[in-house]
């Protein structure tokens, strides 16, 4: 009898253990480069999923995009990649070419998603060599943030759509004030004692290049040839684009030299306008007392164009089928609920989710700009060619022109040569 009871007890414990083991949630890791307020929105979405799906637990990690991709390469090399990886559409080719991403075409179609349900630029950004490797999450592009209070004080009616470069410059001059209350076009203006600037520019990081890239596109040119093997644009067009940006700083004095934190300068009213992406919307919304809005970047040249990109969600290659399935389920849920991602400032790629963005304040400039978005070339060595690292040719060139006030043409030729060398090495 005791033996029978002992056996039954042992079987009961084993069964309990099996139930406990079965109840353990699948652990997933999700990496993304959303390090600003947009990261808080994504974390809230992950927390919501975790709370409503007890069979899965997702650990969300953020870091800057360049170190994120370096860590991904290192982790993938030892067979331990994240289960879900956020990136930009132009990033897809470099990792797909290395066979590090799971093809998702069947998963996306089986989830009921089709191209017509998404913004075209976002959908197209998920493919490499005809294979779909990602879910389209959003679109984001540059626009102009403006301080409504400072505009009102200056007697300026904010634009509601695209304006010319001259109109933009006239506003920036009127919004730039020295300690004596003079503007840059007034006699006796003191450029060494400016208390309020009209416009904030990013000149210390790769955003200077992106601002130049969109002005190149406004002249009808891309950066590389059709084969994406060599830099190919008219030097005079590149010179005109850089010159317009450089003059804002050193000729017209409407933008500070080498600003270390243009966003903060805008938030505290040191600058009246700022060119930046929609990921800064949560910071503007959180700034007490700031009345703000947005409008498209100026059309300086012949056509409308603005730099932009789009976040996508990928599933790195791995052997654990249960994890892959759980990762797919989460990403499908996230896309279907991406109207909530609009709170990050980014414009949802899913059409029905994007409609919600129209009801949110401060989105006008971005929504007006969306049809004119131009992305960087989609190339396998995109991370090196368009690196945001301090030694990157595009960053060094931007600093030389926008901070050190160097002659543009030799700097631009040097940048082109450096990029050609990177492209010649291939992947």
UniProtKB/TrEMBL annotation:
Entry's localization field: Periplasm
GO-annotated cellular components: periplasmic space
Residues making up the signal peptide according to the UniProt record: 1-22
Chief localization: periplasm
Keywords linked to the UniProt accession: Signal
PANTHER family noted in UniProt: ARABINOSE-BINDING PROTEIN-RELATED, DIACETYLCHITOBIOSE BINDING PROTEIN DASA
Family affiliation: Belongs to the bacterial solute-binding protein 1 family.
Stated name of the protein: ABC transporter substrate-binding protein
Organism: Caldisericum exile
